[in-house]
Amino acid sequence: xxxxxxATIGVDHVGLTVADLERSRRFFVECLGWQVVGEKPEYPAVxxxxxxxxxTLWQVVASGGHVAFxxxxxxxxxxxxxxxxxxxxxxxxxxxxxxxxxxxxxFAPELVGNGPRVHCMLREPGxxxxxxxxxxxx
Length: 138
Prior knowledge:
By secondary structure, this protein is α/β, with parallel strands linked by helices. It has two helices and eight strands. The strands form two sheets. Strands 1-4-3-2 form a four-stranded mixed β-sheet, covered by helices on one side. A four-stranded mixed β-sheet has the order 5-8-7-6, covered by helices on one side.
């Protein structure tokens, strides 16, 4: 098999369907410090960015209720992994998100496998799994 150059050059954005658009927007903007870079109220959707990564948040149409993602049963986005600068920043952010309304923390910062990377996992208020991860300096 011949190696080819990748036909793509990175991720432009990630689109996430959330249970509550306003609670998810507040989490990304007020808790994580992201900026709203656009909105489409008729859709409804909000576009947020940390200056590097862009995420589209869409409101689920829940006229008959919605089904939460189950990572063991559903095909789709397992989680969104966001980089954090260092261990201190990860600890500080973990404390902040743990205290944020409607966030469910799956586990506190721990080594990824045998390390050196460290991560924690949570569900933001709209139900999407988010991993916060850093690679400590050697």
